[in-house]
Amino acid sequence: MIIVHTIDALFEATKSLKGTIGFVPTMGALHEGHLTLIRQARSENDTVIVSIFVNPTQFLEGEDLDAYPRKKEADSKICELAGVDILFMPTIDMMYEADELAISAPSIRGFILEGTKRAGHFDGMLQVVMKLLNLIAYNKPSSFRAYFGKKDAQQLALIEQMVRNYFINVEIIPCDIVRDRDGLALSSRNIYLSMEERKKALSLSRSLKSATTMILKKELNVERIKKEMLLSLSEVEVEYVALVNRQFKSIEQVEIGNTIILVAGYVGTTRLIDNLWV
Ligand code: PAF
User: Fold this and answer.
1) Does pTM surpass 0.70?
2) Which of 34, 36, 55, 189 has most ligand 1 atoms within 8 Å of its beta carbon, as the pocket-test mutant?
C-alpha cells in the first residue's frame, strides 16, 4: 500500500494505473462499516483507493470537529490489511483555499431532515466529495466507482444528484448498512456512548424493526407507523422520524421497494441516525 499525503503524490500514484478504480472516501476512525465498503471495492476493482480526511466544512459551529476521532496509525494498518492500494491523507491547506467557490445542496432535498437539523452540513459534504472525486479521476481511469454507505441515506441521494447534475464521470455504488450483533448501526460516533447510552441507542434500530413488523402485517399508513416507532424511542431525544420515497419526497403510504424509513436523535450528547430501505 502506498500512503500519499499530497495532491502531487496522488497524481503520481494514479498516473499509470490500468483498469478500474474503486474509491472509498472516509473521515477515518475506520470500523466494520467502512471495511465492508473497502471489501466490496476490493472485490470489484483493479485498484482500491481510500481517502481519510476529516472535512471541516461539513461540521457546523459547535459540532464535534475537534473531538472527532482521529486514528491515523490504526486506520493505515486496517487499510493495509484490507488490501487497499493507495491511501490518500491530505491536509486541510491542500484541500481548501481561503475564498472558496461554494457548492449548495438542492433547495428541497438538501433542506429537509438532516438538512434542517444540520444546515450547511450538506454544502460542505458535497464540496469535499466533488473535490475528492475530481482528484481520483484526474488521470482519467477507464472506469471509476465510488462506494458510499446507505446509512447516510440523504448524503447518498445528494451525492448521486451532484454526480448527475455536474456530469461527473463516476459510478456511485450504494452499500448496505452494517450493524453490530445487537442491531446498532455502526458509526464512528458510537465510541462516544457509555454502556448505559449504548443500551438506549438500540431503540433506534428497534423502532425500525417495529416499522418492518407493521409493514409485514400490511400496515402501510405512514402516520400510524411513525406513531408506533415513537413508542420505542422514549429514551432517545428524537429529532425526526420520517418515511420518504427514494427520491426523498414525503409519502402518505409506504411504497414497497421505494421507501426509506429514517430516524435521528440524541442519546446523551451523541447524535445518531439510522434507516431502513423497504
Ligand atoms: O460519510 C462520510 O464519512 C463523509 O461525509 C464523506 C463522504 C467522507 C465526506 O467527508
Assistant:
1) yes
2) 55
